[in-house]
Amino acid sequence: MTHRRRRIVRALLTWTLALGLGTSATAAVHAGALRTGESPSTVRAAAADADCSGSVSVYGALADGRLTYSQIDPSTGNRLKTHIGPDLGFEPRALATLNFNTVLATDASGTLYRIDVKTNNLSLALMSAPTPIGTGWTHDKLVHDGHGHLYGTAGGVLLQYLVSQPKPAGSQHIGQRREIGGGFVLKALTSTGDDRLLANAADGRLLEYRIDDAGDWTGRQLVASGWSGFDKLVSPGGGLYYGVTSAGGMYWYQDLDPDDGSGSDIVYHTDDPVDPSGWTQTLLSAEPETADCVGRQYAYVLPRSAVPRSELDDPHHDYAAIDIQVPIGTPVYAVTRGTVGHIDGGFGNGVTLTDAGGVTYIYGHLDSRAVGAGTTVTPGQYLGESGNTGQSTGPHLHFEIRVGGVKHCPQRLLLALYDNTTPPAPSSLPTTGCSY
After folding, report:
1. Shortest CA distance to 96 belongs to which of 191, 177, 223?
2. Which of 257, 291, 337, 433 has most Cβ atoms within 10 angstroms of its Cβ?
3. What is d(CA 227, CA 208) in angstroms, rounded to the nearest whole number?
4. How many other CB atoms are found less than 10 A from the CB of residue 185?
5. What is the pLDDT of residues 204-227, one digit of tens each?
6. What is the CATH number of the domain that holds 121?
């Protein structure tokens, strides 16, 4: 077991023991449930960590009214800690994080409270009991965008408020109520940045909303299906999205370009959840805009557990390429951003991936192809499953790199990607010495 996996296992044990509310569901069950209704081409898994900095801070509320605080590493998706705080004295109905030590919450009667956090480092403690600062807050959801706007939904109506102080004392600091529009019947709602909202619908769509200075909004469908399994969504910005299932599993995703209005470049980490169970909070709210990510240029082409590192420097039997022995059905991932092509013949169900510089990567002998020819894919995107098709003497992935039609040895590049170090430029790779 690797150091990273041991750390995850220890974290999971700590998590389950701390809450005492974990479930017995497995990550595989959750991942399969999230894929219901999706076609293979929409299921993408990440084979490499994200290039992210900052922090992911998530406040929550348990059914008994206790406040919780969790911190997650934005690059690896590992939960770093969870603290359970005191009883708030009421069961929150909606929750919004203003900043690292100020949280807003409503109760069933519509009273709005300000919760002042004293510390969330080694434990979770409050400065004092929650302070009531308003009434009539009958919203079912509340989110803060990190830029002074508080959004809420009530009866399907989206409302916007201006928060003028980091610790608002009442209506003098939370005002300018504006009705954005109706029809916002959403399963979960979070903010991804300045006047930007992310939501999922009961039918599985992942949706984005952007609100302009005049209060007008535009909506986009990022993903057509597959997101109905999430009861809660939170985002710390940077294109990072976290979803929690009804079974208590938290999964994380990275939108490589959150400004493009498309979900086609969302990298799915369903094979490496934050936690497969244990998130039993009735509400969750992330501190806004605390994480920053950059798009990854390259990604490893297989799950890291598929083969040991020592298999990645093996020579190919005939020319500059590599044959990696993996069982039929092993996921394979896009090594970089590029355009997909299909190649058959001796490659069986083969896939080509051509990047912007004209470098072509070939995946041979797949059992199935999950992306259509002409599709643009991003690093780490799911391409299909390894197999034994075409001119193959046993289950394996044939991988090669062609620069200007010339074959280059891929071994050094694969080793660098496996090690999470900067890979060499494809053109710098040798053209001989990796075959026998």
Report:
1. 191
2. 291
3. 13
4. 12
5. 999 999 999 999 999 999 999 999
6. 2.115.10.10
| Alpha carbons 28 and 275: distance in angstroms, whole number | 12
For the full predicted model, state whether its pTM sits above 0.85: no
> 334-363: b or e for each residue (b if 16 or more CB lie within 10 Å)?
bbbbbebbebeeebbbbbbbbbeeebbbbb
151 located within any domain: yes
CATH number of the domain that 418 lies in?
A: 2.70.70.10
Helix (H) or strand (E) holding 33: helix 27-34
The two beta strands, 94-99 and 79-87, are: unpaired
Q: Is residue 141 part of a domain?
A: yes
Residues 213 and 157 grouped into a single domain? yes
Is residue 184 within 8 Å of residue 197, measured between CB atoms?
no
Planar angle of CA 410, 74, 80, nearest 5 degrees: 115
Same domain, 202 and 320: no
Q: Are residues 283 and 317 in the same domain?
A: no
Q: Alpha carbon of 263 to those of 42, 90, 148, 197, 206: distances in Å?
A: 10, 38, 26, 14, 8
Write out the two tokens for 291: 């994480």
| Any domain includes 389 | yes
Overall domain count for the chain? 2
| H or E element, residue 406 | strand 406-408
Report the C-alpha gap between 352 and 383 in whole angstroms. 10
Quote the CA–CA distance of 287 and 106 in Å, as a whole number. Answer: 17
CA 436 to each of CA 175, 317, 318, 322, 352: distance values in angstroms, whole numbers, following the listed order = 74, 5, 6, 11, 24
Residue 249: name the closest of 272, 269, 278, 271 by CA.
278
Residue ranges of the chain with pLDDT lower than 70? 1-50, 295
- In angstroms, rounded to a whole number, what is the distance separating the alpha carbons of residues 233 and 129? 27
What is the domain extent for residue 159?
A: 3-294
How far is it, in rounded angstroms, from Cα 28 to Cα 251? 12
**Which residues touch 241 (CB under 8 Å, ≥6 apart)?**
190, 192, 198, 233, 234, 235, 252, 253, 254, 255, 266
Q: Are 210 and 196 in contact (CB under 8 A)?
A: yes
Q: What is the pLDDT of residues 104-146, one digit of tens each?
A: 999 999 999 999 999 999 999 999 999 999 999 999 999 999 9
Identity at 39, one-letter amino acid code: S
- Please give the backbone phi and psi of residue 180, each rounded to the nearest 5 degrees, phi first: -80, -40
